[in-house]
Structures are given as C-alpha cells and as structure tokens.
Specification:
By secondary structure, this protein is of the alpha+beta class. Helices cover 39% and strands 22% of the residues. It folds into two domains: 77 residues, OB fold (Dihydrolipoamide Acetyltransferase, E2P) (Beta Barrel); 126 residues.
Length: 207
C-alpha cells in the first residue's frame, strides 16, 4: 500500500549500516516508525527528509504484514533554518519533539498535536522562546493527550491560565515574568512526568 502524508520528524536512529528508523509524526496517521533506506550514505537521496525537526510531504510504502512503512519519496517543506541558527531555539525544538513523542502512542492520529507542534516550530523559526513558551507548549500537549489541567486553575490567575492554554505564541511571550509561577509550573510538570508517568525528558536539562 502506498500512501502520502504531511509529517514532522521527531527523532531518528541508525539501522544496520546505511539505513535509519525515523519517528515521523504525521498529520493523518499519527506517529509512525519509518524505514529510510540508504540515507546514511553520502549520496542518500532521502537524507534531508530523515533529519530531525524537518517538516515534509512524505510518500510511504507499507508492505502487507509489516508494521514499518518505508519512505519512498517526498518533498521538504521546511527545515526551519531560523531556529537551527540558535542553540537555545534548536534545544527547545528538540524538547518539544520529545514531549510530543513521549505523550503520543504509535499510529494514533492527533491533528491537534500536529498543528500545535508545527505552530511552535514556526514560531521558534522567527523568534527566540519566551520564558513561558515551554510551559504553555507542555500544558497544551497534556491537554490533547487527555491529561489536561485547563479546567483546574491551581491558584493561577485566570487570564494567565487561559493564555497559557489558548493564547497565541505572541500572547504567551507578552505575559509578565513571575518567578513563583514559573517554579510552581516546573514542579507540576516534573511531578506529572516523573511521578505520574515515570517518564524522563532527556532534553529538559538543555532548556
């Protein structure tokens, strides 16, 4: 079966001598583990499409009885050059991809998560992350994953809480600094991932 879908590369890892297994978060099919053949060779034709934090229009082939589609072609829509030029932005982008990866089961479509991640990467491509962007992104992924806290303010100002869950990235960036609120959110997120889910976010130490 041949099918096409838009997708964002969350991560990649080597397979055998020349191949890669690439985690692609697709708009229509959800998170897929995709075999990219021969892309570790210098002349690999699909190498660019297999790189992390790449947004593309992909063509896949899924053989009967297999759980791993093979990428057979596609077109790169963006590699987000602006965020790649900044260490802070690229680390934040990797962090966002890890959060989505670890809160998304395989092959479970979520157009909301896809659009959220794409909008965050596009925002990072233009501007550096604000102090609140990371927290807002994680809260929104949690909401879409069924662990939402939107209806439980936890003592935060209602306008602040609404902006964190529903405001544009510009509105999030314009929120006033509040060290106490930052510390409370950091503790809340650490408890959720560490104690509730038993998940370690490896990229958290870099953001």
């Amino acid at each position: 079966m041949i099918f096409c879908d838009y997708g964002i590369v969350l991560r990649s890892r080597p397979l055998r001598e020349n191949d890669r297994i690439v985690t692609v978060f697709t708009k229509g099919g959800g998170k897929l583990e995709v075999n990219f053949k021969s892309v570790r060779r210098a002349a690999g034709k699909l190498k660019a499409l297999s790189e992390p934090i790449t947004w593309g229009d992909y063509r896949f082939y899924l053989r009967g009885g297999s759980n791993f589609p093979v990428c057979t072609g596609g077109a790169t829509l963006s590699i987000f050059p602006g965020l790649r030029a900044s260490r802070d932005r690229i680390f934040m982008a990797f962090h966002f991809c890890e959060v989505v990866n670890k809160l998304t089961p395989a092959a479970q479509p979520s157009a909301g998560k896809y659009e959220l991640l794409l909008s965050a990467l596009q925002a990072l491509d233009v501007n550096p992350p604000s102090a609140w962007m990371r927290f807002a992104f994680i809260l929104r992924v949690m909401e879409l994953a069924g662990y939402g806290l939107k209806e439980t303010s936890l003592g935060f100002d209602s306008r602040f809480w609404e902006a964190m869950h529903c405001g544009s990235w510009l509105e999030v960036a314009e929120l006033k600094d509040d060290r106490a609120a930052e510390n409370m959110l950091e503790g809340l997120i650490n408890k959720f991932f560490g104690e509730e889910l038993g998940i370690t976010l490896n990229t958290a130490q870099f953001v």
